Amino acid sequence: MTLGSRALLAVLWLLHWLPLPLLAPLGSGVGALLHACARSRREIALRNVELCLPELDGPQRRALVRQHFHWLGRSILERALLFYASTDRLKRLIHVEGDVTLAERSERPVMWLVPHFMGLDVAGAATQLFQKQQVASIYQEQSNPVMDEAIRRGRLRFRQGEVFPRSDSAKPLIRAIRKGWAFFNLPDMDFGARDAAFVPFFGVPAATLLAPSRMARALDMVVQPVVAEMLPGGRGYRVRFLDPWTHFPSDDALVDTAAMNRWIESEIRRNPAQYLWVHKRFKTRPPGEAALY
For residue 201, what are the contacts with CB-CB under 8 A and spacing of at least 6? Predict the structure, then answer.
């Protein structure tokens, strides 16, 4: 496993020399292969789209999922750029919109809310390349130590900061935020019922962490939504730093979380093919409710 992981990283290093207009179609081809071979993930994506976008008929759902896998393949191969390309090259490829420097100017710590679109790691790079505030984030540890170290190194290669394993205590993260670090927060995955509530997501009850609202309120944070988009034709990436929310957090974490999910829904409707449909977003069900997968 270790040897195979090192070989994969070597391939990524070689790929980073390719111009993006060549790397992008190569990634799309990998995505087409994944769509053909990864049956279980394809079926998860189709089920998610059926639940979330019921207005689409069968052919439309299948077409959307095919497009999604093309973007998924690109996101995998284009990590080569994020891991190994020069700072100058990445700055040319990443087009930033909005107030990217809010965190370094704000007297209060900033929480970036970043949904799971295919350009997620590009947004992470943008928070380091285009502003100077230190950044903290949480990540899911990989069982493969070689890949775990590569992901950590890739996400921290531009400047001082830290990524904290999700399995660890939240105390180091909270200490970093209290020192003024910005928090790159990924709020839209199913991590089970613990510390979560069943909040509508496209009308379907979804286990959603209440932590974004609770943490923002407890630590007096400014909440700024951020959305990343991969551009077609190898033209680079767009990262939108949106206006900070004035309604979030409130004194009701459940109301806040429902509002957050509605915002994520609106962004998905803007760019449905690039959302992470292969994740079992509705895996955890309310007591007594049948499984959806």
Answer: 52, 188, 208, 261, 264, 265, 281, 282
Place of tokens 């053909």: 36
| DSSP H stretches of helix in the chain | 2-15, 20-37, 39-52, 58-77, 79-84, 87-93, 102-105, 120-129, 145-155, 171-178, 211-218, 253-270
For 257-288, what is each residue's pLDDT tens digit?
999 999 999 999 999 999 999 999 999 999 99
Tally of CB atoms within 10 A around 149? 13
Spatial separation of the C-alpha atoms in residues 217 and 196, rounded to whole Å: 16
Give me the pLDDT at residue 3, please.
64
Whether 205 has a pLDDT exceeding 80, the answer reads yes
Of the listed ranges 120-124, 143-147, 217-221, the least confidently predicted one is: 143-147
CA distances from 251 to 82, 178, 260 (A): 38, 20, 14
Distance CA 131, CA 182 (A): 11
Report whether the peptide linkage leading into residue 249 is cis, meaning its omega lies within 30 degrees of zero: yes
Distance separating alpha carbons of residues 52 and 56, to the nearest angstrom: 10
The tens digit of pLDDT for each residue in 94-144 reads: 999 999 999 999 999 999 999 999 999 999 999 999 999 999 998 777 777
d(CA 232, CA 71): 9
CA dist., res. 46 & res. 34, Å (int): 14
Residues 6+ positions from 180 with CB-CB distance below 8 Å: 109, 133, 134
* Residue whose entry in the numeric block shows the structure tokens 């979030």: 248
Residue 251 buriedness (CB in 10 A; 0-12 / 13-18 / 19+): exposed
Q: Which are the contacts of 214, defined by CB distance < 8 A and separation ≥ 6?
A: 249, 253
